[in-house]
Predict the structure.
Amino acid sequence: MTTVWFTPRNVVVAILLVFLALVPVYSALTGNAFLMTLFTRILILAMAATSLNLILGYGGMVSFGHAVYLGIGGYAIGILAHEGVGSGFIQWPLAIGASALFALGVGALSLRTRGLYFIMITLAFAQLVYYFGVGLDRYGADDGLQLYRRSQFVDPINMSNRTQFYYWCFALLVASIYLTWRIVNSRFGMVIQGSRSNDRRMQAIGFPTYRYRLVCFVIAGVMCGLAGALLANHTEFVSPAMMHWTRSGDLIVMVVLGGMASTFGPLIGAVTLLVLEETLPILIKFAATPFVGAAASRAAEYWQIVMGPLFLLVVLFARGGINGLLESLRRD
Amino acid sequence: MLLVLEQCLNGLQLGLLLFLVAAGLTLIFGIMDMVNLAHGSLYMIGAYFAATFVAWTGDFVLGAALAFGATLLVGMLLEVIAIRPLYGRDHLDHVLGTFGLVLFFNELVRIVWGPAGLRVPLPDWLNTSVQLLPGLSYPTYRIAIIVTALAVALLLYILVMRTRLGMLIRAGASNREMAGALGVNIKLLYTLVFGLGAALAGLAGLMQAPILTVQIGMGENVLILAFVIIIIGGIGSIRGAFVAAIMVGLIDTIGRAFLPDILRLVMTSRGAATVAPALSSMMIYLVMAIVLVVRPQGLFPVASK
């Protein structure tokens, strides 16, 4: 069997990757700093969505509290910076360690359960950390914590240089997509996917699936914690809002919108959702102007009223997400 | 001692309100196998309706009754339009679809009622306090909430366990195909159950309205508390929801009230002041974690289908 590389899906992914690689160039040529800020954010959240896809798409573990790792990773950076520890060589391993530890605890408890319990428990634990953040008076509580300096590394690495930071995010995103791909196609990944389809059968074959799933859960947590560390460096600000439950919902939307259990689905989903968030108000304004005139710009403020039902429609009619739609083009 | 008693009453009142929300959620899950994140939005809608209708009629009880009916209608309408296509699908689809509905409702409320919070004034006859014990007077309205919620809980019990409709509901929960084959109109039954759940959530919201500010997103915290409750109580069990709701209400209220003092016994007062607010809001989640370790299926597990 020969693999056909020239498929609509692969072309779209290739164009997207080239585009993402060229954003800083465009930004430097035109002086459009906003575009680069937006796409840095998109890259970071795409990384978070990639990590969620590993457990949700491939592992069938519907974690509804995944944004909590963004918060943990972010707060690890924020708190250390606040206490005067600016070195990234200390900050980042600690961010990773804290995410791993939390994922281990939550995973050990929540993977004992299935289905709906799992969804709600991951949500509840994320809320626990959220309220802990809200109650942290020393670190800004509800208002969050300002980062005075981005993480300090040794000389060629400079996180404060926005272009360089963009490429770090890009590299880490590509690395996490590659890592996910490698994991999924390894023996380990086969056990995870087998356990999604039929856990009892996998156990009967002799795999201790609980341990496999727990390790997978921790890997995803670490990957997302790293994205949180990037996000804190990007916005130079951490607050409990980073791990609000709607953010976890957004991550799920990215994964499903792009295409669950597909290599590039989360990236496509993150780009689509976040670009839509920016452009939907403009689109609404454009569409409403002929009918309501000047009131259109007010109507554009309410773009979420379109976004919400859109999610419902994706669920109802486009289960494979964008990746699935692109794949189906191929058969025609 | 009186303070402890007063906090217990506050906890009971919070617990009963949470029960009204959790009961609907657990009912909808038990019968339709449906995860409904928009349940918190119905709570919010109930409160907003109450604010409008009370201002419109000028009478608190009449306004509340209208708000209750209106939430029931919204719930049934929502079921027919948006929820029905989701039955029989994956839980992930439920989560995602109803998450979209939450965004929709938040935005809808912002359009209709504006972004500012609303206040619901209490009528004079409820805005007094009652001398319960020498030295302990308690607001009449909070007592009214406790009494109403207990009455509703009792009515719900009678409805589900003693009436023909309740029998159909239980039949639908244990085997929907068989109930359908025996001539039960499952579609109508589902709409009714969803409407009932919505109305209960709306009732909780409208009763809470005079105590808190009516605002966008007010249902979300309640929704997550209700999730914790039905995890502790066992998903699908109304009895479990009742016990767990009161437990959560008491633990949360008493934790917030007394944890700083308790912590001060074991650590410096400055340390206690830092840790207590964070810890007291985490208490119920810790309880949930403990329950999960001891009994992963909740305190009152429903026999699996």
Observations:
- The beta strands of chain B are 129-133, 136-139.
